[in-house]
Amino acid sequence: MLIRFENIAIGYNGKPLLDGLSFDIAAGDKLVLKGESGSGKTSLLNVVTGFVRPTSGHMLLHDEISNRDNIRSLRRQIAYLPQQINFSDYDVKEFLALPFTFGANKSIRPDREKILELFSFLGLKPELIDSTMQEVSGGEKQRIALVSCILLQRQILLLDEPVSALDDASKKLVMDYLFSQKELTIISASHDAEWVARCNKIINLHQPASWKQ
Q1: Strand order from edge to edge, sheet including 201-204
Q2: What is the rounded distance in angstroms from the CA atom of residue 182 to the CA atom of residue 159?
Q3: 112-158 tens-digit pLDDT
């Protein structure tokens, strides 16, 4: 099993948000978290990254309990696309290059050809690579951020509302690409019915540990 949540509880200011949540994620699973706003979807994604610590219970990756001592090494297996990203200080090339300025990623720095290949898969025009972020639409920004995550070549992809800004044609291109990556494990939070229908595992956070598969 790739990831295991064991009796996870999350709370803020003494108020419980999630309690007793347990489930497994196998390599290659495409999982979606469902629930109303405030039900804990983003918080649970951030348990995987280590930015939210459960009030009780554990998350295990490769049978190793996530903790402060190993979280840096665990994060190197994860790419995360949050719902809100600040693009304002970058042009597209700078934004895509940023993750590869860090030592852990320098050896996999992509070339322009690889970037443009992903642009094509996701319906992005090649000339966008030479644009500023102020020149691209919200849907284009969302796909550019997704390209950045894919280029990191991580085993696990965390996605928070990944198709929320996309039109139907762009959404289909994104879903067709991501769900064709059989070895890629995706953990997502989404309200989109088409995205949910593509996932092989669904967890409803208003019904903890209740699965539809």
Answers
A1: 78-81, 156-160, 185-189, 30-34, 201-204, 211-212
A2: 16
A3: 999 999 999 999 999 999 999 889 999 999 999 999 999 999 999 99
Q: How far apart are CA 79 and CA 57, in angstroms?
A: 23
| CA–CA gap between residue 185 and residue 187 (Å, rounded) | 7
pTM score of the predicted model:
0.91
CATH 3.40.50.300 fits 3-212, yes or no: yes
Q: Is 165 exposed, middle or buried, given 0-12, 13-18 or 19+ CB atoms closer than 10 A?
A: middle
* d(C-alpha 10, C-alpha 40), whole Å: 8
Residue 122, C-beta contacts closer than 8 angstroms, at least 6 positions apart: 143, 146, 147, 170, 173, 174, 177
End-to-end CA distance of the chain: 17
Domain boundaries, the chain: 3-212
Coil, strand or helix at 82: coil
**What distance in Å separates the CA atoms of residue 96 and residue 35, rounded to the nearest whole number?**
31
